[in-house]
Predict the structure of Fatty acid desaturase.
Amino acid sequence: MQGNDSASFAGIGGIGSRIWPLTGPEIISRDALKTLRVRANAPGLIRLAVHISALALGVGAVYLSSGTWWLMVPAMLLYGIVIVLLFAPLHECSHGTAFQSRWLNHALGFIVAFLTMRPFLYFKYRHAAHHTYTQHEDHDPDIVPFPTSFGDYLRQIAGFSFWPKLVGTLWRGCLGRFSEEEREFLPESVFGDVSREIRIMCALYLAIVAVSIWTGSTIALIYWFLPRMLGEPVLRAIRMAEHTGAEESPNLLANTRTTLANPVLRLLYWNMPYHAEHHLASSVPFHALGKLHEHVSPHLECVSRSYFQVHRDILREVLKGKKREMAAGE
């Protein structure tokens, strides 16, 4: 870890720093937090079983629609959405809150990281920086800038910047040469472990490609890679809704958005739509975020009824800004 600003980390999942003193968690009483942060294996195993069942249904839908593109593409899209929503258990495991057992958190974290092409250890440290510097323009590595135009909005949703960043992460990790930004959140002591994980992942990816070419099989392409790519814009839209357009300040009650999503999405996204609640107390497991919402909802400044509402509001502001620019130019 670098000496100056980054030395202020309070550890993985810590709250704030000297240069970005986060506020908001003080509204949660110690007694309530003590009750809510209790971890257990059962809720995570049940949620995992639900997610695996949804993946199995997706595989079945793609298989049954094979040969009929106008059925197969929608089936692959829906299946792909289920795949990319595996980001939720990856995220939860990075906090060590998906399960009570540490080995379960690590095992599922590494497996899901491989399936979603996000290195687990790398993500863990990057995400810690996101929690420490939430909405800081320079130090939050996951800040999503407000779209400057409708075209910029579409590019962000399509993942125009996401995929190059992902490939760059894997490439630099394989070489063991991390960027200046990555060195801000990756302690030097973990460079070797992070590189080793990325090299193993990439070796396995290359092995899958080689076997697929050798055998002439399209299984990995049809039942993993293509659906995973098709589903990514949905995850981009969800991730954008978490902070974009919220206040760019250290106030967690205003810089993070909670979205009152439908029960199906809350189920497959492991309650992450309760995002402000998660940032206020990242030690609270996913299954208790609904109860935490009951405690803090009167204090939250950024709550939306649905993801459609979030994006409608973002687009309205984008178009207003465009109209103002046109009017100023006349």
Q: What stands out?
A: The radius of gyration is 20 Å. The first strand starts at residue 258 and ends at 259.
